[in-house]
Amino acid sequence: MAAPRIRFERISKSFGVHQVVKDLTLDIERGEFVSLLGPSGSGKTTLLMMLAGFENPTVGGIFLDGRRIDHLPPHRREMGVVFQNYALFPHMSIADNIAFPLRMRGVGRSEIDERVKRALDMVQLSAMSSRRPAQLSGGQQQRVALARSLVFEPAVVLMDEPLGALDKQLREQMQLDIRALHKRLELTVVFVTHDQSEALTMSDRIAIFNHGNIEQIGSPRDIYDRPQTRVVAEFIGETNLIEGTVKVTGTAGTSVEIADGRHVMVPGNSSLSVGSRVHISVRPERISLAAGGIGAAANALPAKILDSVYQGDHLRVQLDEDAFRFVVRTDMRSAEWPIGAEVVAHFTPDDCWVIAA
Amino acid sequence: MSAFRRRTGTFALILPLTLFLGVFFIWPLLTVLEQAVSDPVVSKNLPRTTAAISAWNLNSEPTDEMRRALVDDLKSLDDDQKLGEVVRRLNSAQPGFRTLMRKTVAAVRDSTGPVSLAEIDARWNDVAFWRAIAEATYPYTDRNLLAAVDLQHDASGAIVAMPAGESANQAILLRTFAVAAVVTLATCLIGLPYAMLAAASSGWRRQLLLAAVLLPLWTSLLVRTAAWYVLLQDKGLINSLLVSLGLLNTPLPLLFNRTGVVIAMTHVLLPFMVLPIYSVLIAIPRNLMPAAASLGARPIRGFLHILLPLALRGIASGGLLVFMAALGYYITPALIGGPKDQMISSVIAFYATGSANWGMAGALGMVLLAVTIVLYGVYGRLSMKTTGA
Q1: Which residues, in sequence order, are bridge partners of residue B330?
Q2: pLDDT tens for the 357 residues of chain A, in order
Q3: DSSP one-letter code for B247
Q4: TM segments (chain B) (predicted)?
Q5: Cβ neighbours of B288 in A, within 8 Å
Q6: Maximum CA extent, chain B
């Protein structure tokens, strides 16, 4: 089997006594779009900087196509980096900015012109080639930075929160543009972000960072629907967590006792043993509200409505302590509940996801 | 109404500055300039001659009217000091006037009746002497300005170079520019890496580096120069260290020569190079050099293609500051340099305080000012070009 495009092998990085990356191992395949997602200070940017060559790992090795590269200086790593604030050269025209990596590689004049022209076409900025970066909008600058990082056909493209400075609409457009480029050019992309919807939109795989290591890595669906830890469940999307103890296990279903002796039915799971502590995660959009008369098969929690907020495409309803202050997203077509109304929050066992505590 | 009020309000705000500049800068400057070109001695003290000679064509036989007017003027000029000024002025244009005038004045003062100048001295028949008087009667002259760059009028009025060995202003001006250029280059070579280091470091290290540059600025120039005087001596710190380390057998001559002047001036002027470069460097986004590296630029090429072009504005304004300040340096070359290292300001000082020749001092000052203005214009053009979109 061929070596992965990038391999991080047992990487640790310390700044003084502070360890920001702890014994991390990660493979990234050719053509894959991997997002590093996590709160600030979780080590994701440091990992990217080590890949680009701006930081050296304290321990461990970084491999590109099986070749060790962590001793190489940045200019010999063949990584296209898109920086947070684009890092365009202010004294050069757009065309010169994009030509820069080619000039550094001693590419001939006519070939440079040709490739710069193609790169400008790719990001639809051909009309701007003679302008200076300061004369462009944020979105245009971001596209120039992208073109500059791609024009020399690097082995990997690294992006450090490249869309952070753009407004929401432009950001969403750029997300789709970058994703389309990734597919068309079969790029290997490592993308650092703290915006979960960005990661969900763009990635083949998402690595959730926490305290210097990867908490979980998987497809967006894995991460969202099957979080392995409480941190992941809470970080990706909004969720309701209930703590409980496993009472009955079985292939048909598992019963978990929660506070004040009530039970919640969750899907059958052979890995759970009776008496173990678990968290049950229920996404807000999986919960329904009813006035009463729910069948016995469903999990039902009677509660009062504390608050109800109009969000355009849905209502965000907050329940009181009887239902563990659950948050519920209700469809706009369903009934609108007044604050203080008595309701029953109900969800099926399949709406629950169990995380070992 | 409100626009008018607003405008007068603005003027009122800048009035103190305008007054200050007018009284303490522009007026003295104009006075000095006037000194450089004014030549009132003869026209003021020999008014009748001045009037009579204005009709003369400079070539024909001097008229009787001119002769009579001169005798009358000399008769009524009883202030010996003023007479001395007139004689000095005329003698500087035409050698021989000193003895001629002494003889003539004595004869004129002794006689009671009409006096014939030609009988007193045959030289009064020489047109050249009359021509010197005629030229000296103009209240303005370009003699000082020409002399400032080693030029003069010959007998026919054409501008020619002064005889070799008579004046060294051109050589001293050239030396002044050479020293200023070398000092500018040296401050740039030291100041650019230093400013880069200061801009790249942070926290107490940056504070320390900047303080090391700023501290000398807060010390008197005289004290700093005196300190270099001590350091650069044959038995000074530098030479004794080099000798005791065995690197040298005899001490390097560092004092009273060009090397010492350049070393001391470079140190004194270094802050004016470091600070503009530093202020430009810290404004450069931090991720540009990593970006250049990630795009394949070796550090040296990143420096040449990115950092240096962006720092150029700071280098240019620092260079201009240093060069212009160096042009006017006086104390440092005077104390550290030898006689062959004196710069134009010491010549100005000589004329102003040593020989009371305000005209020459003003003329040299004007030449220096003109060169500085031209340089500033060139800098303005260049910086427009580099910053213009």
Answers
A1: none
A2: 678 999 999 999 999 889 999 999 999 999 999 999 998 889 999 999 999 999 999 999 999 999 999 999 999 998 999 998 899 999 999 999 999 999 999 999 999 999 999 999 988 899 999 999 999 998 899 999 999 999 999 999 999 999 888 888 888 988 999 999 999 999 999 999 988 889 999 999 999 999 999 999 999 999 999 999 999 998 888 899 998 898 888 777 888 888 878 888 888 776 788 888 999 999 999 988 888 766 665 688 888 899 888 888 888 898 887 778 889 888 877 777 888 888 888 888 888 999 887
A3: S
A4: 12-30, 172-196, 208-231, 261-285, 306-331, 358-379
A5: 87, 89
A6: 102
Residues of B in contact with A72 (CB under 8 A): none
How far is it, in rounded angstroms, from Cα B31 to Cα B383?
Answer: 33
Among the listed residues A43, A36, A23, A51, the one whose alpha carbon sits nearest the alpha carbon of residue A207 = A36
CB contact under 8 Å between B287 and A91, yes or no, is no
Size of interface A-B (CB pairs under 8 A): 66
The pTM of this model reads 0.78
Complete edge-to-edge strand list for the sheet that includes strand A79-82: A79-82, A156-160, A189-193, A33-37, A205-210, A213-218
Matching residue, tokens 């203005």: B373
Contact A87 B291 (CB under 8 A): yes
SS3 per-residue string spanning A227-295:
CCCHHHHHHCCCCEEEEEEEEECCCCCEEEECHHHCEEEECCCCCCCCCCEEEEEECHHHCEEECCCCC
- Asked if A75 and B288 come within 8 Å (Cβ–Cβ), the reply is no
Nearest alpha-carbon partner for B237 in B220, B245, B338, B271? B245
